[in-house]
Amino acid sequence: MRLAVNIDHIATIREARKAREPEPVAAALIAELAGAQGITVHLRGDRRHIKDRDVEILRQVVATKLNIEMAATAEMTSIARRIRPDQVTLVPEQPHEVTTQGGLDVTANRGAVVEAVRQLRDGGIKVSIFIDPDEAQVAASRESGADAIEINTGAYADAPPGERDAPLAAVRRAADAAAAAGLEVLAGHGLTYVNIHPVASMRVIEELNIGHSIISRASLVGLDRAVREMVELLK
Length: 235
Ligand code: PXP
Fold this sequence. Notes:
Elements: E1 2-6, H1 8-16, H2 24-33, E2 38-42, H3 52-61, E3 66-70, H4 74-83, E4 87-90, H5 110-122, E5 126-131, H6 135-144, E6 148-152, H7 154-158, H8 165-180, E7 184-188, H9 197-200, E8 207-210, H10 212-221, H11 223-233
Parallel strand pairs: 1-2, 1-8, 2-3, 3-4, 4-5, 5-6, 6-7, 7-8
Helix pairs in contact: 2-3, 2-11, 6-8, 10-11
The protein binds pyridoxine-5'-phosphate (PXP).
Pyridoxine-5'-phosphate is lined by residues 6, 8, 42, 69, 89, 91, 99-100, 130, 150, 188-191, 209-213.
């Protein structure tokens, strides 16, 4: 299973001081050297952490796979068509949320999603949609023309340890339904060194997007070690 490291928090530290460091581009290169097979950033409408300049430079230096998370808006699809990341992940976005709250409701936002998928795929960019583990959302994603889905593992990660079976089974069902529909299956949100194992055991999932836990560990033991330790857990 591939690991994509979300480096938004490196930019969050930089923006805490509106300074030049730490440099997200350096973090991306260290993560790749430590075995990450993808780099993910979220270009938010308010640019609270990752900036346009970051995605421009990351596009030039990331040698594995650059995945940009973004809202399904005309502004964002036009930026993506200029930058040309390997993949865009469509996510819901609320201005004051601390982190992405739940998956994108593809059914309720069908028009905007279909248009964004069309624009991005016309621009030669692979499209993934971040959805909750719900088979109706899998079907709607498939119908939108997307190449992949990223299943939101947040409900599993947030459940008390004794109550994780049901949300885990929902992730498995959605993953199987997506694979059967011909979609590439990715997953992420809230995954940690402690809760990763059951998700990493699902062979149908090809890639995990992990941010907070890796960058948190990196702040104590270094990014190279933090990425290497997560890569080991995904084997
Ligand atoms: N996937 C998506 C779509 C996200 O928005 C995020 C958080 O930025 C992640 C994965 C990673 O979540 P975490 O930081 O909890 O590992």
